[in-house]
Amino acid sequence: MNTTFLTRRAFSSVLSIFILLSISFILFRLLPGDPISLMFRDPRLTQDQLAYLREKFGLNKPLWEQYFIYLWNTVRGDLGISFYYKQPVTEILLERIVNTLMLLIPATIVSILLGVLTGVVSAWRHGSLVDKVVSGSALVLYTLPTYWLGGLLILASINYLHLPVTGMRDYGVHYSSMLEHLYDLASHMILPFITLVLVNYGGFTLLVRASMLDVLGEDYIRTYYAVGFREGRILFKYGLKNVMLPTLTAISIAIATSVSGAVLTETIFTWPGVGRLIYEAVYNRDYPLLQGAFLVIAVSVVLANLIADLLYGLIDPRVRT
Amino acid sequence: MTTGGSSNRFATSLTVLAKDMLWEIVSITRRNSSIKIGLTIILVYIVLTALAPYITSYRPEDTDPSSIFQPPNSKHWFGTDEMGRDLFTLNIYSIKTSLIVGLSAAAITAIIGLVVGLISGYYGGLVDEVLMQVVNFLLTIPSIVLMIVIGSIIGSGIASVILIIGLLNWSPIARVVRSIVLSLKEWAYIEAARSLGASNSWIIIRHILPAVIPVTIANTVLSVSTAIFSHAALVFMGVGSIGDWNWGLILYNAYTSGALAAGIWWYFIPPGTMLVALAYSIMLIGNGLEKEFNPRLPQTSSQH
Fold first, then answer.
1. Do A154 and A191 touch, CB atoms closer than 8 A?
2. Closest approach of B241 to chain A, Cα-based (Å)
3. Which of A305, B75, B116, B301 has the fewest other C-beta atoms within 10 Å?
């Protein structure tokens, strides 16, 4: 892969992360009061201890120096202490991020697969009833507020389906086997998983459908038809190959949407991930935790975008030259 | 305002443009049925807001401890909440906040997006690089998360919420405007104007602005619905205009009061439905306008 492309993208990602860190620095300095008293909201702290902490975080230094100390602390993974949990923010985040990924990754994969399948079929049967149903429902799902859709599923579950609607496990239950634990986890995952798949699915389908419509109008596709290739092969092999590029281009926006969806889904289902942490931190006015959760989410999105772009470079030779 | 002939001519040109646009919108509305449907629904909402005190005999602040969580009945059409408030009343009074937030945030969005798109596309170079970096940044970060963080720090009054939404949602408009400006720049009439000695600001306002206004209008309408959704999501996450009734707040209350977990559907379904219906009808108008204006063709609006 061409080094200019690589460095350009890497530079842009580093810049984005830098902007994020700076925004976060400025925002959390806007809070009333001394960052230390905010960071360690504990009346038992003595003046000496406060002075020590001020020194440690460089609050007796000029603002620009404080900024570099903050950058350095953040890079080292020191994000302060949560007010509410009285425990380092980094520790809490590491614990929660696993839960988020457990939900987000399978849901994203399933929604992409579903989106590709219905998007291709919908474009192939352009204007038919199937197309109308697919693109209509995709449009609705794409724009429906995630937390409301989740809430509707909760209502349906309480009144009809009787699936668990909060958290990751039944509290106070001792599992007799690993299998039982997994079963409980899976049953708690069903509704948040469905919610996340549905909200992401809509966007992917519309995207694949639009790109596929463009591709299907191309001469080489008509040539394949004329040669007499099977339709399935034309659509999914040759058509899809050319749809991948525009889809990957749009994926950066899809990542952001998908993460926003995860934050709202976790919130409504009390799924103990990083997204739910945002809600809890706002609720408890737990600023260090809010800052930490925000940075983790935003930086992961930037990195995910970088990966998507590098993949794009691998697939499309034109980018490399 | 009369600092010279040139600014007078700008003003006249803008008035002509405004008149043309208005006429164009009226004639488009006449022939486009999705815009008609959207406008009709919005009209219903506006009438409901305006007549709210006459439609319902309750006020939003009326509580009644003796009738909490009542299912819909003849006294309370949408039932009551955990404090015995009439949910129909709360839902009706919520329209106003959504409309105010949506329209004001979209106005901010439109102005910033238009200015950034024009400057970025017209001048190019380093300015363009920097502005596009910001646009890409805003497009790729999950904006609702950033909005939550900013909102929980700078406060959750309605003005700050409008500002936050407006300042974070302009990137799609900037991008569309920029792409049109880029293609317009190559047109002969722009080159001709430049060779006749027209200043950059004259070319932008007189020749480029008219061509990008239609697309900006369509996208601004779309951003009204984005803003309404963002606002509801913010409030649901515990940030934003707690004082004014809005659907996000009703949904938040339904969630935090445990009504949702208890399966109390009349608390949760109506506010979401009203929110989605309003945002969808705005989208119908936006999409209708976008189709009608056909963004890639500059000659549609610069007829004079």
1. yes
2. 14
3. B75
